[in-house]
Amino acid sequence: MEEKGETVSIIRPKAKFKINYIKPCTEKDKKIANAHISVEKPIDIAKLGEIFSKLSEGGFRNVKVLKNLGLVSFDFEEKSITLFEGGKILIKKAKNEKDVMRTVETISNLMKQYQFLSE
Fold first, then answer.
1. Tell me, what DSSP letter sits at residue 17?
2. I need a surface site. Which of 4, 76, 99, 108 has the fewest CB within 10 A?
3. From CA 7, how far away is CA 28, in angstroms rounded?
4. pLDDT per residue as tens digits for the range 41-75
5. Residue 59: which domain range?
């Protein structure tokens, strides 16, 4: 049975992020999601990429910074993630909605820890 895509909008005001949608991924039993973290100014993608590169023990791998496109892409656990300087996040290969939420919260918390986001 083919699963139909659905749009889910989840706003977490205290966390300052919004999940715009979660849909079936091309990979079986996986999800793709679009989220947005509220940022006051464009994210310094090069600096964030450098920090993610140092966090391989925390599950971050294959970090690639494309400064001319304003994005950093990386693998986190089994997921492929693209983070844009304006705060947009694309997540591919998530297990489910809970996995998407946990992933966005992890990224948001790291960005706060390294002072890319205000409290």
1. E
2. 4
3. 19
4. 899 999 999 999 988 877 899 999 999 999 999 99
5. 10-113
Report the distance separating Cα 82 and Cα 101, nearest Å: 15
Amino acid found at 110: L
User: Letter for the amino acid at 101?
Assistant: M
Cα–Cα distance for residue pair 1/14, rounded to 1 Å: 38
Answer whether residue 43 is part of any domain.
yes
**Has residue 119 been placed in a domain?**
no
Selection from 110, 111, 109, 59 nearest residue 85 by Cα: 111
pLDDT digits (tens, 9 = 90+) for 18-46: 899 999 988 899 999 999 998 888 999 99
Residue 3 placed within a domain: no
In a domain, 68, yes or no: yes
